[in-house]
Every structure is written in C-alpha cells, then in structure tokens.
Amino acid sequence: MSNKINETIKEVFTEMASALETGTLGPRIKIGLTIDGSEHGLTVMQEAVKLAQKNDNFDIVAIGSQVDWPGIENVVTTCEADNYKKMEELLASGYLQGCVTLHYSFPIGVSTVGRVITPGTGKEMLISTTTGTTSSNRNEAMVLNAVNGVAAAKAIGIKQPTVGILNVDGARSVERALKTLKENGYPINFSESHRADGGTVMRGNDLLEGSADVMVCDSLTGNILMKMFSAYTTGGSYEAMGYGYGPGIGDGYENNILIISRASGASVIANAMLYAYELASGDIIAKSQEEYRLAKAAKLKEVCESLQPKQAVAEQAIEMPAKEIVTSDIAGIDVIELDDAVKALWKENIYAESGMGCTGPIVLISEANHDKAVEILKAAEFI
Q1: In DSSP terms, which residues pair with 353 in a beta bridge?
Q2: What CATH number has the domain spanning 313-379?
Q3: Set 99, 217, 304, 358: catalytic member
Q4: pTM for the full model?
Q5: What is the percent of the chain with per-residue pLDDT over 70, rounded to a whole number?
Q6: Which of 206, 238, 334, 372 has a CA-to-CA distance to 229 between 20 and 30 Å?
Q7: Is 32 exposed, middle or buried (0-12, 13-18, 19+ CB in 10 A)?
C-alpha cells in the first residue's frame, strides 16, 4: 500500500476520531501563529508549537519566516507586517478559525479578554480587558468590557460566569450601570468579594484568589495585571504563566485574533493557541453577537449615555453649611465624583465631608442627616 494511501486513511480516521470526540463532522480547526517578533526568537515559538501539539484537537499554521517544524504547516511571508495581512486573509477566507499574534492593532470598540491562573487558588480567571480601547470614556469602556468578558467566558464553556468589578476609578459608576442593565433584563451574574464586607467591587485579595470568573477593569490596568500574573515568578523578562492577553472582542467584530506579548514564553504561547481553539469551538463570534443583542435589549445605549461626564457641581458657587460632627458615612461613590457629591449635599444645606474608608471613598455626614443625604445622592446618581 502506497504512502499516499496510508496518509489518506490516517486523515480519514483522524477526522472520524475528532467527530466522535466533538460531536461534529468536518475539517479540523486550524489555529494560526505568527512566529516573528518575539524577544526570545524563533526558538521559543518552536517550543510553544511542540507544547501545543500535545493537544491533538487542532492543527497549527505557522505564519512568517520559513521553518521546517514537524507536523506544522508553514505559510511564508516576506516581513513582519505581511504576517498580519496573511493572517487576516486566512481568517477572512475561513482557512483559519483563530490566530495568535503579537502587537496587533484593533479598531476602537474592540479590546482583549486575558486569561490568567490566580496564585492564591490556582483558579483560572478572565481579565476584561487587557489591550485595545472599547470606548474613549473609561466608565463606558468598563461596562462594555463586562459584556466582552461574559462572551469570552461562555465561549470557553462557562455557562453562567460570575462578574466582579475591580476597585479602580469609576468602579462604583460601572457597578450602578451594570446593575441597571440587569434590572432591565440583561442576564449578568455578579460575584461576591471574598473580603468580609463582600460586595461586587473586588479588591486586590480577590485578584489573587480568583473571586470572579470575569474581572472587569480598564485596559491599561488589565495590561499591567496580565504582566504581573504571567511574569511574577520570573522577574519580568519572560512571561511564563497563563494564556496571554486574549481575543479582541467588540460589538460587530468578527475575527478570532488573540494577543501575546513579545516577552511571552513557550507555555503562554501554547496556552494562547489552546485558548484560540476553545474560543473557535465555542463560536466566540456568535457568542459575542448574542451578548450584545441581550445587552442592547436591556438599554445598553441609554445606560452608556448616562455615564457621559455631567457638568460638575463644583463649578457652581455653593456655600458650605455650618460645620457639624460627622459620625455616619455613605459609601459607593467614585473617587472622581467625591467632591461633587459633597457639594451636592451642601447645596441642600447638609454639611458633609469627603473621606476614605476601608473599602474606598466615603461621604461623612451626621447621623441625623444620613437618610436624607442618601436620597439626595441617589437622585443625583452619585450612588
């Protein structure tokens, strides 16, 4: 029997085995990897490919320099810039179902959902987001990042992912916005902080423990977190842990492109290819379209519009009321809105001071004025 016939038989049986395992019949999923540009050279790319080949559920296509790696298809390009063009062509044609690459520029409205292994418990956690810009408005971006993170989680098989909001500037506004979406019918499941006082807003301890399936933050913070989670055991020059910076996701975006860093090591790159395969298997494009459909039905546009900057109360000439002893506090106010919240109470002749509690910014008022102050701040959408 000729070698060609043997290879054909092997391919048929491989496809049959894959169909039995996945429940689908058809060509195997192909995941691309652009192999040029790493700070660690082609050696780390080859090592990553060998690690990824241990998972026999998908084929790997190396895009870039000419290489001769066993079992790997090689699409040769002339330069690093051509790698991106070829990757886009192969994705658009359907030849690739996903691709892992370095430093790709996504359009505004698209950002990436990273995936890490938390050191406190060994639990996996998605960080949404880590590169790209979902919106030029930070708080609006974080609301959209929550939708992106849920889409990624569902695509990799987490049916009801829990969502936490990292305690960065804007967290309380984002929390209110997401809770409004939920009240309007968007099916989001909030996580609970592992700290004693609980709540949806997550602290540093929750990052280490993986208190949520999806941790929502702005992309700059997420990028730093990815680098810390992936390289804290190596000193920083070699990213050794996790799955990389993840897929670009956004409303209407239809490519499964995942980002790694030039400092990413072999295990991270291999995991990124596995992540790409899981996203392709879970149809990330359909999942993200469905999440945005649900969010829009829950008045996503109106919720995001409510997050646009309001005219600062501070611009008005408001006289401070007579000073009182303040022994009661109101939490849940963004630090960037704290002074405006205080002045909103002054405007209603309630003495208030700004402060910082154990869990974040607070407004201090007298016990007698507590309930009325809460009503005023709620009406003004500070809490």
Answers
A1: 364
A2: 3.30.70.1530
A3: 358
A4: 0.80
A5: 90
A6: 334
A7: buried
Q: Do 258 and 246 meet the contact criterion of CB atoms below 8 Å apart?
A: yes
Whether 217 sits among the annotated catalytic residues: the reply is: no
Asked which of 253-267, 315-329, 339-353 is least confident by mean pLDDT, the reply is 315-329
Q: How many C-beta atoms lie closer than 10 Å to residue 75's C-beta?
A: 18
Token pair 């989001």 in the structure block, residue? 188
CATH number of 1-309: 3.40.718.10
Residue 105 pLDDT: 83
Token pair for 348: 């209603």
